[in-house]
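User: I would dearly like some help making sense of a protein record. I have put the entry right below:
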Amino acid sequence: MKKLFNNQKDFIRQLKKGDDFAYSHLLDLYYEELCNYATSLARDNFKSEDIVQNVIVRMWDKREKLNADISIKNYLYKSVYNEFIDQYRKDLSVSILERKYIEGIDYFIENETENKTKRLIELVRKEIKQLPKKCKETFLLSKKSGLSYKEIADFQNLSVNTVENQMAKALSILRKKLKDNMTLLLFLLLENKTNEIKK
């Protein structure tokens, strides 16, 4: 964090502004360890990923309310714990029959929205393909291949600072192009993080 941001307050300020690079850095820093923590609570890998994704996406949606004086790590850990407790209570309160009913509704909703989701994902992929050559290569090496900035710098024979700038540029372009669909891109980034952990 010291290399990318002046201090934690600066990091949180950038998150509050909606800076996509700060969001990506947040995932790099905490996503895997938060999943491990959630798994220790839920004893279920898939449920733990849902918990962490719910927490991170909710934090992003309400980022403007973040307190710059908090410890972002403590905040995330506490949020994951609270989300686990909420889900646990909901599981206890829902009967077997109610679950079957909800699952049936979900099945129809998923089928109805499947085509729309596919179109949106194709839109995101199209915009990624249209990135400038270096930006696209850097973005894919980071988010698809799961390489660190240092590994990307070595592979491209560039400085780490140049790689960071290319990532910031890529995220800025995608944000302008996708606009209302930016949340989908963030979900895809989360999905890629999940796949990296499972490998």
